[in-house]
## 1
Amino acid sequence: MPQHRHSRRTILQAAGALAGGGLLQLSTTPAAATPETMQDAIRAVIGEAAVQNGKVKLDLPQIVENGNAVPCTVAVDSPMTATDYVKAIHIFNEKNPQPYVISVQLGPRAGRAAFSTRIRLADSQTITAIAELSDGTCWSGATDVIVTLAACIEESIH
Amino acid sequence: MARALIHVPATAKRGEVIEIKTLIAHVMETGYRVGVTGKPIPRDIIDDFVCTYNGEEVFRAKLYPAIAANPYISFFTLAAESGTIVFSWTDQHGATQVQTAPITVE
Amino acid sequence: MKPAACVVGALLVAGHGLAAEIPLDQRRSDSEFISAATRAMQNDDAANPGMLAVLDGETLWNAKAGAAQKSCADCHGDAAASMKGVAARYPAMVPGQDHPLDLEQRIDLSRVTDQKAPALPFESTDLLALTAYVARQSHGLPIAIEATAQAEPFIAAGRALFETRQGQLNLACAQCHDDNWGKRLAGNLIPQAQPTGYPIYRLQWQELGSLQRRLRDCMTAMRSEAYDYGAPELVDLEFYLMWRARGLAMETPAVRP
């Protein structure tokens, strides 16, 4: 009898895992990034380096009309000389389906450690940028964005 | 392949920091949108962008689905010498599109 | 993250008669009701995603097509010269047609009649690109629609559609866009609905789209049944809206949320 119960529990657990995995694929709401998974993603990119707050300025509109294309500018305070420059800038988010946004590599030839792009934001959230400097230090900056929902959004009838 | 729009100043002074603007037509399908059939539309994104200046890499970006459709990337580079600036976008299937712009540096 | 229904019904008070037209000197482009970030995207040709379609349109303008193997350029030459001011006068009465045509329909008429090519379907990438390219040649020019004796009944029909309540919410376009422009609807500013920049790059669509597409979207949001593409009602509405916007500058390709 105990054997029967044990094997039934195992089967149910296995079925649950399978169902969970299968449901995830069919779900219209994908698992979202969280502040924790974002921290994991940051560690995955820059390793164990200590991150200090500063030098990084993230520019996004405070309020966004549509999260499909949000202008985003990052600028890092650096002389960009051959011996003192920004080698990489990474942008992360905490509420999109995954935490990565863009990873940029630069060198002294950049002249200025800054770039602009347009990003997708699934919800109001904090966006974080991490800069890796040539001296091995890492710096961060963050900004909050409110993503509004237009009053009249229609399912596409195109 | 896809239409691209590049803005590079035609001329610049040696050592000047110039701004380059790039825009390329691409749906950047995230893989999270659900189609009319109820099935997710497969991910289809450009995931690499590289800029070289007379052969030397001066800017590289790894793009994720969080980059908006019709990716716009603007960045800076030192006007080091006259020559050719080359832009290449590679999608997740490995297809690459290359575009070039000349620059005259005085 | 899409709401199932527009929130409008709860916010607007019922009981409107014929709406008052916006005084001519108070008319503003919809560009003034979008965020600064969206406006900046529109005004930078290097960043405006609609410009990609304009470039595609230029390629199509120069491409031979149809049994006649002619390009638009073969007859019309340089679009910057020949198409200057054209989009600012559309929709228009066209000789031989019993109903006004919008710009997309006029382009298709040439394709079929002069290039002997099949018409491009509404909302196809090619038709949007060609329309965007032609309309771009009127950028900065004032919309120049005149209510001539011939045009008047169609413009009036469009106005009637604009001012008539419709759909499950029993709403007329005029209630938002004539009576409540500048006020907020669930966090967004209500524009006057001046179609100065079509085809537009709409951030929600993540692509370029026509005025007809936008009108159909609006009607759906109002819980009304949208007219089919090419329906005379849609063209009448476009005609009225462009006449209502007369004097405002063309901005194609505009960027909208």
Note: Chain C has eleven helices and five strands.
## 2
Amino acid sequence: MSTLAVHDHGVAHHDEHGHEHHHNETFVSKYIFSMDHKMIAKQFLITGITMAVIAMILSILFRIQLAYPDKTFPLLTTLLGHFAPNGRISTEFYLSLVTIHGTIMVFFVLTAGLSGTFANLLIPLQIGARDMASPFMNMLSYWFFFLASVVMLSSFLVQKGPASGGWTIYPPLSALPKAMPGSGEGMTLWLISMVMFVASSLMGGINYVSTVLNMRTKGMDLWKMPLTIWALFLTAILGILAFPVLVAGIVLLIFDRSFGTSFYLSDIVLNGVQQPYEGGSPILFQHLFWFLGHPEVYIVIMPAMGISSEVMSVNSRKPIFGYHAMVYSLIGITVLSFIVWGHHMFVTGMNPFLGGVFMITTLIIAVPSAVKTFNWLATLWRGNIRFTPAMLFAIGMVSFFISGGLTGIFLGNAALDINLHDTYFVVAHFHLVMGSAAIFGMLAGVYHWFPKMFGKLMDEKLGYLHFWLTFIGAYLVFFPMHFMGLDGVPRRYYAFTEFASMQKWLTINTFITWAAIMAALAQVAFIYNFVVSIFAGKKTTQNPWQSNTLEWTTPVEHIHGNWPGEIPTVYRWPYDYSKPGAEEDFIPQTVPFSQTMSSNLPHDFEDNPAGLEELNRFTSTLKAEEKVK
Amino acid sequence: MLMGTNLVNAQTPAAGATEEAPQVDWTGVSYYVLLFLLICVGVAVVGKILKIYDLTLKIQGKKGLRWNNVMGFICLAFLLAGLYGAYWSFTVQGSMTLPEAASIHGVKIDQMFTITTVLTMIVFFLTQILLFGFLFKYRHSEKRRAHFLPHNNTIEKIWTIVPAIVLTILVVFGFFTWQSIMDNTDAKGEVAAINIDITGHQFAWELRYPGKDGKLGPKDFKLTTAANKLGVDFKKKSSFDDLSADTMYLPVNRSVRLNIQAQDVIHSVYMPHFRVQLNAVPGLPTFFKFTPTITTAQMRTRLDDPKFEYLVYCNKICGGGHYNMQKVVRVVTEAEYQTWLSHQKPYLTDGLRKELHFAAAEPQQTVSQNRLALNN
């Protein structure tokens, strides 16, 4: 079967090569150092899920501390050793947990796990390419990510514990190893890990962009690409432009930590000892960090938006409403996301005038986000909605995006941010809008493309259970946090016991912790479903969701080069669902208009006058026939 | 039900352990593991029953369980439960939030907050109702076909322009509010601001009030010693009458200028009752001007809480003691303020006098003191 597979690991566009040859793949070249985009996607996915589970367990650990600040849990000492002396997590380790939870979730799960999985899987399959532009670089991208993950986790083995300055690692706290235990070797490992991570991300991003721009199949112009591809493409551009700035910031921090420079440090007296730093500015780091950090949240959410758009269109059996508006809003978000970073810094002492400017740009970015939301709602309107687990997760994504997005209007307003900054209101906001929404987009993608990845179907009922427990759990966890924030409860507090005014929130903290434990246990349903389905799932058909996009024209069994024989040509946009006059309620992109005369619309020939003429002739003959009758 | 049992039993392993010799209560642990496995088995059994039910329906020639219908109804149920939950949360937890703003600019912020809340909540309820309503209404049916509607430019223009207008209003309103709060010039007719120095370090705040001259002496971090904790420069006259204080007293209805600094890492001066927050950044002195309007005593009566205190606390992660870096703030009448001020100790203590005298001989004596002990 694979005799037609392409040489050069599938980079070639053509398949008319005369010689046939067998790939003698070893275990290592097939499963470990694979250069096949589908295998790399799976590697990213499984690593991403593993990291997600680890980061989730970390969150449960600190939730236990928040729920029971006065109780001792000897089991914690058994598990964590000196990080949790006497059955209680230490204050410093609590901050480490928060820091590493955030870092892993934002970067390792929602950036690499999400973009890495779906860009690798979907870009070649949905644009009609044999593989990525540079499969070798693609492989390197995964292995740099893997190394970065290992280094990040290895910081738990360091005596002083992992980095603990928050995922934003603001200096001077992160720059002065004596400022807290986590700023020692743990911080060094964090920085090393992140440099490797950015290298991975750049190699991936360059690959995604060049593949989308250069390797689309015949007929696949940019306006025929599914929204998933648009989203992943723009995400990759964002990453390429933003991540190097983080590296710049990190390298300067490494210099400050190890070589005695003062980029970020000035006028410091630590524990009564004057430090020899002068002339630097801690704010500089914040600018560099958030110049990545803000595009980063869109790097996280845009693939989720793309996936949800695709999944919702397929399962509503309806074209996505306002395809062009969806693309333009993605482009708008991409451009604007580079000029809003200062809204993270309203109260850092940045010039207040700048605060005003960033407030204006921030609230402008809400417009494309609002357009997307309304378009999703319009997509559901008068649809014929099939509730696959993927569809439910896509809907969950929209619900979270609304709930979390609206609170962004508060935080983007500099005046309101004064009192809300760094409180639980912010925690609630970003966990809904980028945490939960993005992870739901990712899960929607996993459920939707699982048949494409593994050739098997996942169990739908377990998917339903997983969805509802997680969806309700996430709301129970994050909704009450808004009100804690409105009461002025700061984030990253080890315990609320020291403040009389915060003690009323203790019962709610306990409630949140139990909701979080419920949601965490619900993930067992997913992991079980995922693993068991890979080995014992029901075999899928070629196009299980009756979808239009190209990936479902490939055989179920993966082959190197994706399509046996010629890559199909694309004739139409990917959203011809329930077109009036068509026999079935979907028309794949590979079906030419000449085969669907009865369902063609004038709109289909906007840039094709010859086709329009053809259509007019067809409709006039049809009318003439009707008259005869 | 499930969560209820867990909640009750969660206390057992913790209560069973003693502080001195933490012993893992393995029975407790295995109890939880068993409980979880039991739930898994329960889920599996329910799954099998559903499958058998589904099969029997099919054998009888009926259509199997229509999951699209089931999910549609669950969506509707979720919408209703969610609406009630949101309402409950707003009323019960919403009433636990901060009391009215105790400063002039805080009132403006609260007005903005109310307007933003009303606008966003309309959108929130509307969109969530539409979302889950559509899911219920348009759940899958064999008989129907979806309505082919690829786009509609008019409606898309409307829902681009309307949010744009609403957001413009919010931006303009917010921009001017922000500018007025951050305005650093003294307003006409306003009594000149009282300067108060607040300096953060791990893990406490230091306060410095100006003396009779109303001016704070300049500082230089290189002058910091054990006795001169803030590094005040005593070459300048204005430094000599500076006062140090343990509690932040503020006279009501007078403009206060907080000069905010940090010595070691970034801290954040957060006084939520006054809607005041600004980071304390080493090497970057900042300030926040505000006017408190409600005295502590008035607030105590209003809240019916005789123990109520205004607080300043740290809101930027700064290390292990971050969660407990608070200072009491008392807003008092002008007369009370003056009495209190007259009782404050000078910053220039006897020890510091002695040290300054020796300073010429031993310039670099910066041995660390027990700073950590301040962390309570």
Note: Chain B is about 45% helix and 15% strand.
